[in-house]
Amino acid sequence: MPRNYDFVSLPQQKPERVNIQAKDGKDKFGHDKYQLNTQRFSGKLFLDLTVVSPLAVNSGITVMGSDLAQQTLDPTSAKYVATISLIQSSVQQNQRLIIPGSSLKGVVRSIYEAITRSCLCKTNAKVPDGYGECKDISQLCPACVTFGAMSWLGLVHFHDAKYDPDNDKPGFQTGLITPLFSPKPEAVDLETGEKIYYDKNNKIRGRKFYPHSYQEEVKPTIRIQQAETGKKFTTYVNYANLTKSQLGTLLIALGQDPENQLGLKIGSGKAVGMGTMRIDVVKIEQLNINRYLSYNSNSSDLEGNKLQTFILDAIKSAKPQPQTTTAKNQLNKPVVKSANQPLVQLKQLQEIKALLGLTKNS
Ligand SMILES: [Zn+2]
């Protein structure tokens, strides 16, 4: 049985953890205070999320079709939906489908983790020495610094994404899904007899991701409420006190690197090709010193070409650049760690691209 997922290997080097606490014990870059200098970036990312393959964020509630019929766009679809006896409903707010901010954050975090030297958290699998979940706020890996850990809120906040915001009545689609199950870490491939999560040396293969394509094996039978292909969700993400490299890594995890365009996998049915989303950053509201010090400063909204330049610049800071001859000659000098050092691991970024890469046509 072919697997509908694959693994992104762990970086050779163990997670790189830093102390985010200042000497007085208070945190240095919390959400509550903005650092008024050019080293740190704070603001809002405005996102459009386009549905590339049907998306359903299961609410866990199964309802009668007749209960959902009133929310459809036209009488024909209402009649049809009313004939469905049971339907798995998706998460909604005021009769509009939403993607909860927490779901979106989790998906972006998992990519951010995979492409940086971050810890392995929320897993039942055996984790290699030194890769365990960050538990101490004085030693946080890149993903935990940005997305949060125990007793640390993180530097980004994802808001709920609303479906089809331009329409008064957005409606929904009904679809079919196969009964799904998640393999356990100790699972064994029935054909090869090999462990699925571990290699021959019993070392974990890496982080699990679902590609966009799949082979249908089981006939889908469960009715679900889903968002329609081609329609969009909109939302925004607040960020506070990110280094340029952290902001660039976040933008790469959101699929914005032109060299590594990624689609995100959100919600139910990831194993059967569902939930592929393309993200476009349509605007950035960048808070800056001028805005704080002067009431009549011009808007710092970035759109169009300015936005693209800003995004590319941040992404460049996140990736290690090829070494120049001068840089190679300086190898023997002591390395000064800068807060803005590139975070991205190029090997893992390539592996993620192989799984989640999106072409312009998809
Ligand atoms: Zn961590």
Q: Helices, strands, pairings?
A:
Elements: E1 6-8, E2 41-51, E3 58-64, H1 65-69, H2 75-83, E4 86-90, E5 92-93, E6 96-99, H3 101-114, H4 142-147, E7 156-158, E8 161-163, E9 173-177, E10 207-209, E11 222-226, E12 232-242, H5 244-253, E13 264-265, E14 276-287, H6 289-293, E15 301-302, H7 304-318, H8 325-329, H9 346-356
Helix pairs in contact: 3-5, 5-7
Zinc ion (ZN) binds at residues 118-119, 121, 134, 140-141, 143-144, 149.
The 3D shape can be described as globular
What ligands does this structure carry? zinc ion
Gyration radius (Cα, Å) is 22 Å
Distance between the termini: 26 Å
* Biggest sheet statistics: 9 strands, antiparallel
H and E order: EEEHHEEEHHEEEEEEHEEHEHHH
**Spans where pLDDT lies below 50 across 5 or more residues:** none
Beta-strand content bin: 15-25%
Structure in words:
The protein has 362 residues and is an alpha+beta fold. It has nine helices and 15 strands. Strands 2, 5, 6, 7, 8, 12, 13, 14 and 15 form a nine-stranded antiparallel sheet that branches. It has a two-stranded antiparallel ribbon with strand order 1-10. The protein has a two-stranded antiparallel sheet with strand order 3-4. Helix 3 (101-114) crosses helix 5. The longest helix is centred in the last third of the chain and has 15 residues, at 304-318. It starts with 5 loop residues before the first strand and ends in a 6-residue tail after the last helix. The model has no long low-confidence stretch (mean pLDDT 87). The chain binds zinc ion. The site of zinc ion (ZN) has 9 residues, from helix 4.
